[in-house]
C-alpha cells in the first residue's frame, strides 16, 4: 500500500481550464457534497494546484487498487513521514478511517455527520455560472442552458450523445429503484407527487416493496437528486417535485412540457440563493420573508397576467403581498395593481439580478 500512496503523492494534479464557481475552498477542513458530476473533483483540484505539491496527498477512493484495510494501517504513518499538511479523500468511502491531519477534505454524494468538517454543498451550475462557458451572453445562451442543463461535464459531450451520457451517469450513481423513481419524477416534474403515489405506479410494472421505495426516495432527497417543495403552512400536504438538473427531464422522458421545465429552472435558482419558498394553490412560489410571490409564466402577456392576478387577489390581500414577479422567457414590463407591485422579468435578467 505504501507504494501506491507514494504514487499518489508524486503524481501531478492535471486540470483543464477551470471556470469559477460560487463556492470555493479556503484553508479549512471540509466535506464537499453534491450529485455525481456536479464538479466536486474540479473544485478540489483547482484548490490543490495553488498549493505546494509536497504539502498534500490526493486520493481518489474509487481507485480499485486501494486495499482499504491496508490503507487504514499505513495512511497515518505515511502522512507523518512526509509531513503532509492536507489530505484529500475524493469520492470518500466511510470504511476509510479518518486520520489526524492539519487539513482534511472529503468529497461524497452522501453527507456525513462529521461536526469537525465544514459542509460545502455543490449544486449543478446555476445560470450565472453556466454563462462562464458561453461565448455570447444573449438569447442563445439561455436556449443552450435549457438544452444541456447545469452539469459542467456535459459541456464536453456531443449533442447526440448527451441523453445517453446522462442516463449512464444516473445508472452508475443510483440503484435500480432510485433510477426508476428518477424516471417517474422526470415525467411529473413540477407536480405534486408523494412517495406513496410513486409506489402505486411503479408496483404495476416491477416487483417492489414499499419500504425499499421509501428508502430510495428519501436517499434521492438527501443526496439532492430531487428536491421537494412544501405547501405554505401545510407541511403534511403533498409536496411538489423538482429535478436537480433540468437536463434530466429530456434524458429520462420523451414527454414535453416546457412550462413545467421552466418552473423547475426557477426553483433551482431560488434553491441556490438559499431563499425560503413554498407553493400555494395557484401560486408557484411564495416567499414569506419578503412578502413576495413568483409566478412561472414563460409566455405571458399583460392580459393573461392580469387575469392570473384576479384569480389570486384574495391571497395577495390576506398575506399583504408587496411584490409579484412573473418570470418569462423574454417579455418585460410592469402592470398597475392596487395591492402589489407587479413586474414581468425575463429569466436571464431575473437570474442575474441581486
Structure description:
The structure is a single chain. It contains 14 helices and 13 strands. The protein is α/β, with parallel strands linked by helices and 354 residues long. The chain folds into three domains: 2-121, Rossmann fold; 124-266, Orthogonal Bundle (Arc Repressor Mutant, subunit A), CATH 1.10.10; 275-354, no CATH class. A six-stranded mixed beta sheet has the order 8-9-10-11-13-12. Strands 2-3-4-1-5 form a five-stranded parallel beta sheet. The chain has a two-stranded antiparallel sheet with strand order 6-7. Helix 7 (176-187) packs across helix 9 and helix 8 packs across helix 9. The termini are far apart. The relative contact order is 0.10.
CATH topology of the largest domain: Arc Repressor Mutant, subunit A
Task: Average the pLDDT over all residues and give the rounded result.
Answer: 95
What percent of residues adopt helix (DSSP H or I)? 25-40%
The CATH homology group name of the largest domain: Winged helix-like DNA-binding domain superfamily/Winged helix DNA-binding domain
Largest sheet: 6 strands, mixed
Strands across the major sheet, in which order?
A: 8-9-10-11-13-12
- Count of distinct strands: 13
Number of domains as seen in the coordinates: 3
CA-based shape: globular
Question: Low-confidence runs (pLDDT<50, min 5 residues)?
Answer: none
SSE topology string: HEHEHEEEHHHHHHEEHHEEEHHEEEH
Rg, rounded, reads 23 Å
Amino acid at each position: 500500500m505504501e507504494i501506491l500512496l507514494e504514487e499518489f503523492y508524486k503524481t501531478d494534479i492535471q486540470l483543464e481550464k477551470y471556470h469559477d464557481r460560487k463556492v470555493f475552498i479556503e484553508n479549512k477542513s471540509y466535506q464537499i457534497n453534491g450529485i455525481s458530476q456536479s464538479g466536486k473533483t474540479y473544485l478540489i483540484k483547482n484548490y490543490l494546484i495553488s498549493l505546494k505539491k509536497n504539502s498534500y496527498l490526493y486520493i481518489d477512493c474509487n481507485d480499485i487498487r486501494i486495499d482499504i484495510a491496508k490503507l487504514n494501517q499505513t495512511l497515518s504513518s505515511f502522512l507523518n513521514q512526509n509531513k503532509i499538511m492536507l489530505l484529500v479523500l475524493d469520492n470518500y468511502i466511510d470504511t476509510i478511517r479518518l486520520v489526524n491531519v492539519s487539513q482534511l477534505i472529503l468529497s461524497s454524494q452522501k453527507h456525513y455527520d462529521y461536526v469537525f468538517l465544514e459542509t460545502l454543498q455543490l449544486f449543478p451550475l446555476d445560470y450565472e455560472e453556466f454563462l462562464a462557458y458561453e461565448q455570447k451572453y444573449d438569447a442563445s445562451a439561455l436556449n443552450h442552458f435549457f438544452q444541456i442543463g447545469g452539469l459542467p461535464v456535459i459541456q464536453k459531450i456531443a449533442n447526440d450523445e448527451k441523453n445517453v451520457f446522462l442516463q449512464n451517469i444516473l445508472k452508475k450513481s443510483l440503484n435500480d429503484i432510485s433510477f426508476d423513481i428518477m424516471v417517474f419524477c422526470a415525467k411529473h416534474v413540477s407536480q405534486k407527487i408523494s412517495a406513496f403515489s410513486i409506489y402505486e405506479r411503479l408496483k404495476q410494472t416491477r416487483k417492489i416493496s414499499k419500504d425499499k421505495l421509501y428508502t430510495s426516495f428519501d436517499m434521492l432527497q438527501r443526496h439532492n437528486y430531487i428536491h421537494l417543495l412544501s405547501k405554505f403552512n401545510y407541511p403534511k400536504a403533498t409536496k411538489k417535485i423538482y429535478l436537480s438538473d433540468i437536463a434530466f427531464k429530456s434524458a429520462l422522458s420523451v414527454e414535453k412540457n416546457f412550462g413545467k421545465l421552466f418552473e423547475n429552472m426557477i426553483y433551482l435558482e431560488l434553491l441556490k440563493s438559499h431563499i425560503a419558498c413554498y407553493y400555494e394553490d395557484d401560486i408557484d412560489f411564495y416567499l414569506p420573508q419578503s412578502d413576495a410571490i413568483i409566478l412561472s409564466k414563460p409566455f405571458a402577456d399583460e392580459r393573461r397576467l392580469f387575469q392570473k392576478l384576479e384569480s389570486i387577489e384574495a391571497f395577495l390581500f390576506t398575506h399583504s403581498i408587496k411584490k409579484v414577479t412573473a418570470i418569462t422567457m423574454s417579455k418585460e414590463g410592469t402592470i398597475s395593481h392596487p395591492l402589489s407591485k407587479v413586474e414581468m422579468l425575463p429569466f436571464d435578467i431575473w437570474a442575474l439580478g441581486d
